[in-house]
């Protein structure tokens, strides 16, 4: 859908919003949501089933979840593109329904909705967007040049955006989201690095970190656990419209014991007997991963307990828990509770 949000802000408006918020609600969260629900259609299941969020100023918060979890729907509600059926949300101190235009002035939105004109060059797109936000010709040229440089698009600046690769296009989208307000107070990034090669992803991470360091509050959605681990101060795992877990990457990893003991089993029977305790399953290799704190005492106890006869475990290895482990443990309906 074409949306005017990321084109309609002026820097002044964004600064005004900052001043108001700082003066009145200095310690408040920049993004807060309580009990958001949303269904589509009449008999439809709930796409959001009571989402609560609090994101502190200047932090990077990641909504991490599989396809259809409700990430984009949450972002769209917070960015005022759609309304929740129930619940409330405030962004930069403003209610997303009652103060919609103030919210829009405080945010930059980049994601699945970003629209650039494919027939125009990257430079023309950015200049036009800057002009739309009220910049004069010289400022528009300067801002476009700065953003092209920052996103490593200078060499491609004179080519039509339609000829850009997926990664270049993604960077242009993000630049377009920043052209109206180079220092937005709140930045929503919906799967900003999907489809990017590792180098482009790194570059984008750097930009996000830089924006957060300068005080922006960033809410980003991702399906990449690694991305959330690298970038986010806090992570919410979202699954089937609910927050399954929330915390720092370390908090979340500690929920599965901090480490994982992988057991390569000698038989299918042993595999099936122990599968219920595992957070990681690899039936092809008859390997199961079981949460542990990694201490010798616990590992020894686990080995004794899972294989009292000494015949069922062929080999074992110890790994640091990854967000993958947490994610699988907390979101998959098959994966049972553990330790
Ligand atoms: N306009 C709509 N009409 C009907 N159903 C919708 C609409 N928008 C989203 N949905 C449904 O709501 C659910 C959540 O969608 P949403 O886009 O929020 O998920 P997501 O977490 O962003 O997924 P993805 O990782 O695929 O982007 C999905 O089942 C989707 O099909
Ligand atoms: Mg989505």
Automatic annotation (TrEMBL):
Protein's UniProt keywords contain Cell membrane: yes
GO molecular function annotations of the record: ATP binding
Location of this chain's protein in the cell: Cell membrane
Pfam family, one: ABC_tran
Record PROSITE patterns: ABC_TRANSPORTER_1 (PS00211), ABC_TRANSPORTER_2 (PS50893)
Domain of life: Bacteria
InterPro entries: AAA+_ATPase, ABC_transporter-like_ATP-bd, ABC_transporter-like_CS, ABC_transporter_ATP-binding, DrrA, P-loop_NTPase
UniProt membrane topology term: Peripheral membrane protein
Domain ABC transporter: 31-265
Residues forming coiled coils: none
UniProt KW keywords: Antibiotic resistance, ATP-binding, Cell membrane, Membrane, Nucleotide-binding, Translocase, Transport
PANTHER family hit by this protein: ABC TRANSPORTER ATP-BINDING PROTEIN, DOXORUBICIN RESISTANCE ATP-BINDING PROTEIN DRRA
Family label: Belongs to the ABC transporter superfamily. Drug exporter-1 (DrugE1) (TC 3.A.1.105) family.
UniProt-recorded name of the protein: ATP-binding cassette domain-containing protein
